[in-house]
Amino acid sequence: MPKLPITRRPVKGAVFGFGSIGPVHLYSVRGTPDGSIHPVPDVEIVGVAEPVSERASAIPSGVEVFPDYRTLLRQADVDVVHICLPHHLHAPATIAAAEHGKSVICEKPMALNASEARMMRDAIASNGVGFSLISQNRLNGEKAWMKKRVAAGDLGTLTRIDWTVDWFRSAEYYDAGSGWRGRDSEARGGVLSNQAYHTLDLVMWLADSPVTEVVAECSTDRVLHPGIDVPDRVEGELHFRNGILSRFMCTVCGDRRDVIRVELRGSVDGKNTFVVADGNSIVEQNILPESPQFAVEGAFLGKACYGSSHQTNIALSYEAFMGEGAVPVAADTGINVLRVIDAILESNGKPVPVP
Ligand SMILES: NC(=O)c1ccc[n+]([C@@H]2O[C@H](COP(=O)([O-])OP(=O)(O)OC[C@H]3O[C@@H](n4cnc5c(N)ncnc54)[C@H](O)[C@@H]3O)[C@@H](O)[C@H]2O)c1
């Protein structure tokens, strides 16, 4: 039996992990009791795997609870699984799900490194299941607008995309739960693969050209975050094949307001063009008489820094698995972002080619 498109209705889904982001996935599909988030049509979440009992106790009644994702895969009759586990479990859980014939909606980053992500892509392909990587911020109004303006040539030839992710996370943040966010074996890349991942992905999407070389330095603030062995500050530059230079700085030792700034610069007929996004707003630009305004649509699920586009990302993933359209972000994109992260982590101040 071909596994795609998924034909039964409702499509049955399950969530692996009910920590910070697992509930966002569950309620993105079910809708919220107050009606502020509408359910995804023709989809039902029937199971959640979560080993921590106080988290499992928050799973709503009617949803079967499993102590581990492997038990769920053996026992539950589901078509799709949502991987909301720590980074190091994305690859084993995706491969196990594919081998059980389940399609996968996976949280970012796709895996710990590009090599694991390639194994995931192979397992997906050889088992004929679907895969959708969550990258919800691409669906935010201001980022979609920037992509449209770049694609339409309104900035002319793009020459620079500079970006800053200036956030603050405490030592307690790294200690929380099992402490996985501070361990290289479980959260390789630290701030880069956790907080700054989305902005790196957006910049690569906007540049629309392969990264050929990176130069970067990673460091860890031992006063602020004494117990971690992942970087909490990374800065450097990305060189794109089409000539764009991208300078960046990302940190969780900085601004408690969680600043994300992306600056595009280009030129049209010798005239410089620019667009600057700060958070969800376009704060400066010279390509239109007036800057567009973007309301942050829909209700927030989870923390405000997740944005409000998870539900759209998840709904589009299910539509693609049911045979309508393509997933918003496919496995190859996740692999490409990890190739760049791998090179950044290797750089140590020296140029590293991205093959
Ligand atoms: N897209 C976004 O904006 C966004 C936001 C937050 C987190 N994330 C991603 O989601 C993933 C999870 O992050 P989080 O902050 O929710 O982590 P978390 O630690 O809060 O939650 C992970 C959960 O997985 C559970 N778990 C561990 N092993 C398990 C197993 N074998 N079977 C079932 N459950 C198991 C843990 O008990 C925990 O509750 C990360 O990869 C992170 O990058 C993405």
Tag the structure with descriptive keywords.
2 domains, eight-stranded mixed beta sheet, six-stranded parallel beta sheet, Rossmann fold
Structure write-up:
With 355 residues, the chain is of the alpha/beta class. It has two domains: 11-136, NAD(P)-binding Rossmann-like Domain (Rossmann fold), CATH 3.40.50; 141-282, Dihydrodipicolinate Reductase, domain 2, CATH 3.30.360.10. It is built from eleven helices and 14 strands. It has helices spanning 22-30, 53-56, 69-75, 90-99, 114-127, 141-151, 171-175, 184-187, 197-207, 310-321, 331-347; strands at residues 11-16, 43-49, 64-66, 80-83, 103-106, 131-133, 157-166, 211-219, 233-240, 245-251, 259-268, 271-278, 281-285, 352-353. An eight-stranded mixed sheet has the order 13-12-11-7-10-9-8-14. Strands 3-2-1-4-5-6 form a six-stranded parallel sheet, sandwiched between helices. α5 (114-127) links the parallel β5 and β6. α4 (90-99) runs parallel beside α5 (114-127). The longest helix has 17 residues, at 331-347. It is globular. 47% of the residues are buried. The model has no long low-confidence stretch (mean pLDDT 95). The protein binds nicotinamide-adenine-dinucleotide. Residues 16-22, 49-52, 55, 68-69, 84-87, 89, 107-108, 134, 136, 177, 194, 306 line the site of nicotinamide-adenine-dinucleotide.
